[in-house]
TrEMBL record:
<dbReference type="Pfam" id="PF23069">
    <property type="entry name" value="DUF7042"/>
</dbReference>
<protein>
    <submittedName>
        <fullName>CUB domain-containing protein</fullName>
    </submittedName>
</protein>
<feature type="domain" description="DUF7043">
    <location>
        <begin position="74"/>
        <end position="176"/>
    </location>
</feature>
<feature type="domain" description="DUF7045">
    <location>
        <begin position="188"/>
        <end position="286"/>
    </location>
</feature>
<dbReference type="Pfam" id="PF23073">
    <property type="entry name" value="DUF7045"/>
</dbReference>
<dbReference type="InterPro" id="IPR055471">
    <property type="entry name" value="DUF7043"/>
</dbReference>
<dbReference type="InterPro" id="IPR055470">
    <property type="entry name" value="DUF7042"/>
</dbReference>
<dbReference type="InterPro" id="IPR055473">
    <property type="entry name" value="DUF7045"/>
</dbReference>
<feature type="domain" description="DUF7042">
    <location>
        <begin position="2"/>
        <end position="66"/>
    </location>
</feature>
<dbReference type="Pfam" id="PF23070">
    <property type="entry name" value="DUF7043"/>
</dbReference>
Length: 377
């Protein structure tokens, strides 16, 4: 039987009551708490959620709980300074680490530092309810100023000195992501504009754009291939990116709540991309997860945009021009347009940038003078 406490209150004569839910039967019970001089706690439960007629003698069932001395972990060890702080699921101080598991119904875990070995920390953990879990090693991997990943070994009752030494001890546990409360933008790891290749444009087409100037912004749009009508558009702020084996991992946030890890891989000139949720899944199989994978190819690169900008610069020195071309770049569409230039600017460019044009003009004036003199004669 698993009982979950959902509330407590004080009754008449300072009686202490609790309301619990039986997670198996989905029933509610009222419980009366009493404490004896030797600190033994007795719980008297009613048949249902009513507390009015509940007493020590008329209880439906009762339990006695005796305090258990928790294992003492003596150590001068402290968690590394670079790890300490507030995260979405972690709180790390010098002496303790608290992990809120993020799954409904689970109890937070408290870990005490036992030994520090670079990026790995041997800890002794208990649940916040006091249930001992044992010794295990935590492996931390900072990915940026805003994100850290960690994984654990299997908790052991007795101290296992080599728990942090072998990578194989961590093999069966996935990496878990923890985001700091102070989020800082970070490059997304890719730049430019990517779109669905023409040969696979069937029903849904996608565009992924990472701004060339602000490389921490990523926009993903989905459209109907036949009409190019956009039915979904999402703007992400990247906060970390790193390579692990042959894959690139980009961690991004959308709004205040949505955390997403994107795993990408280049193969045969194409970019495979998938979201794996709030944690970054390793060895992701794109073929087996085709419904979550989008296939893209590079449409516009930042290098090509830079060349377009340079090719639009007018010849000659800037001082020779009375008006110059202005290139306007839409950072999301990654396209450039040149506004029309006034005729006077073009004329100035022709007359001042080419000495041959000046010589031709002088020759024309000389010919006019000769013709005029001949006419007078």
């Amino acid at each position: 039987m698993s009982l979950k406490c959902i509330g407590s209150f004080q009754g008449v004569n300072n009686s202490q009551y609790i309301i619990v839910a039986n997670e198996q039967s989905e029933e509610y019970r009222c419980g009366l708490l009493t404490t004896s001089p030797d600190q033994t706690i007795s719980i008297y439960f009613s048949r249902d959620s009513l507390c009015d007629l509940l007493s020590e003698h008329g209880a439906f069932e009762s339990y006695k709980l005796k305090p258990v001395q928790s294992q003492s972990v003596a150590s001068s060890c402290q968690f590394p300074i670079w790890l300490q702080g507030e995260y979405d699921t972690l709180t790390v101080t010098a002496d303790w680490l608290q992990y809120a598991q993020g799954v409904q119904g689970t109890v937070p875990v408290l870990s005490k530092c036992v030994q520090v070995m670079d990026d790995r920390v041997l800890v002794y953990s208990i649940t916040k309810c006091g249930e001992p879990l044992g010794y295990h090693c935590l492996w931390f991997a900072p990915r940026s100023e805003s994100l850290i990943e960690f994984k654990t070994t299997i908790p052991q009752v007795n101290l296992f000195p080599n728990a942090c030494s072998a990578d194989s001890e961590f093999a069966q546990w996935p990496w878990t992501a923890a985001v700091t409360n102070n989020i800082m933008p970070s490059p997304c790891g890719i730049v430019g504009k990517y779109s669905t290749p023409p040969d696979i444009r069937t029903q849904e087409c996608y565009n992924v754009t990472v701004d060339c100037e602000n490389r921490s912004l990523m926009k993903i749009t989905a459209a109907h291939c036949s009409t190019d009508t956009i039915f979904d558009s999402r703007l992400y702020q990247c906060i970390a990116s790193w390579k692990d084996e042959n894959s690139l991992y980009t961690y991004a946030i959308k709004g205040q709540e949505t955390h997403s890890c994107f795993v990408t891989k280049f193969s045969s000139g194409q970019l495979y991309m998938a979201s794996t949720g709030p944690h970054c899944v390793r060895n992701f199989n794109f073929s087996a997860n085709a419904e979550r994978t989008i296939v893209l190819e590079e449409e516009v690169s930042c290098d090509s945009l830079q060349k377009q900008k340079l090719s639009r610069k007018p010849a000659g020195s800037v001082n020779q021009l009375r008006s110059s071309q202005t290139v306007q770049v839409d950072s999301w569409l990654e396209s450039a347009s040149v506004p029309p230039i006034g005729k006077s600017a073009v004329d100035d460019l022709q007359w001042t940038s080419d000495p041959t044009n000046a010589a031709v003009r002088t020759l024309n004036i000389v010919l006019l003078v000769v013709i005029y003199v001949w006419y007078l004669i």
